[in-house]
Amino acid sequence: MRVVGDNVDNPGVYSIQEAIKMADQQELDLVEVSPKADPPVCRIIDYQKFLYQQKKKQKELKSKTTKVVVKEIRFGPNTDEHDYNFKLNHAKKFLQEGAKVKAFVFFKGRSILFKDKGEILLLRLARDLEEVGKVEKMPKLEGKRMTMFIAPKAQKKK
Q: Is residue 22 part of a domain?
């Protein structure tokens, strides 16, 4: 097997017994790195330290990923002005925090007859949120819900 590592004086091909003896002399571990190579490659390292560094890299990669938060805002087809403004302010706040907004109109019973009212309401919301967000998905009727997604606009860095 081929033996490599920071602590190996002359890396090369050794027998398994010689490689194990070299690792024992340095009080380190012999770890198989590439078993499919010809000959297989082993490294003399401190295995616990190696595992710790692997975990650390994984954690670093995980912290760099961004998590997308989706906040929902529910309307009825006959939502009055005060409720609309109240929910509009919440939507603005969510978009400024960087979350996506899923706005939907829920039609109960026979209120499904007011599909056009629901669509007008959602389009009005999109127009009012133009400065802080952009429409990602236009209003679409799915069963008893008409849904629209709004994503935050990219914040300008100063």
A: yes
Q: Which domain holds residue 137?
A: 70-152
Distance CA 125, CA 133 (A): 11
Q: Are residues 43 and 104 in the same domain?
A: no
Does residue 158 sit within a domain?
no
Shortest CA distance to 54 belongs to which of 75, 31, 37? 31
| CATH classification of the domain holding 75 | 3.30.110.10
Distance of CA 109 to the CA centre of its chain: 37
Over residues 18-58, the pLDDT tens digits come to: 888 888 888 888 888 888 888 889 888 888 988 998 899 99
